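REQUEST ID: PR-0412
SUBMITTED BY: lab tech R.K.
PRIORITY: routine
TASK: structure prediction, single protein chain
INPUT:
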Amino acid sequence: MRPVFHLLAPLLLSLPLTGLAAPEQPASERLQGDLFSDGRRLLLRPCGEQYGYPLLIDSTADPEGLIAEVIALSPLPLFVDVRGTLFSDAEGIPSLKLRTLYRLEYEGHGCADSGLASRLIGAQGNEPGWWVQVSARGLVFERQGEERMALPYLEEQLPDGGLSLSSEADGQQLELWLTPGLCQDSMSGALYHLRARLQIDGQPPLQGCASFGAARD
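STATUS: complete
OUTPUT:
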């Protein structure tokens, strides 16, 4: 199929596109930073910047009110990783309307996280504690009380829109399933945009949460 596509591409590009142009989408931005309040509104201060953008969270982005609940009950500032639509408010101030929440948490290294820019996927769970970090260099798995392991992995797109990451090395079999859906950490209360399920050597699966890192959208 690939050679046929390349042969047809010049012809398709030469056809008139009148009436076929896709509607323009509002500009959007992926930002990581600190979420705080100035007493009147929520502000997102991107990592490495001095000033914050007003952040609007409405029922479209937060239909169950879970994001607003976590913000109301957590000490500020919080670390956030979001995608939003840029707009100017009534005063002409650049603002961000939340479109997608990737991560919202109080604990952790936040902007000081050395792996923030290079991380593709981060997943974790509790009882027992486990962590998976994925970057272009491979997959790193760590379980509470054990040494961390660096493993090669294969990724598969699932029909339901989820992902499967599997690894088999050094006698260890690992499979991580990621499913779209807001997930709240059972201990910290942090929010993530993916549900995670981890199975090791055929043992009963461990549950947790996950999110795409800054290196993956």
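NOTES: The first strand starts at residue 28 and ends at 37.
REVIEWED BY: pending
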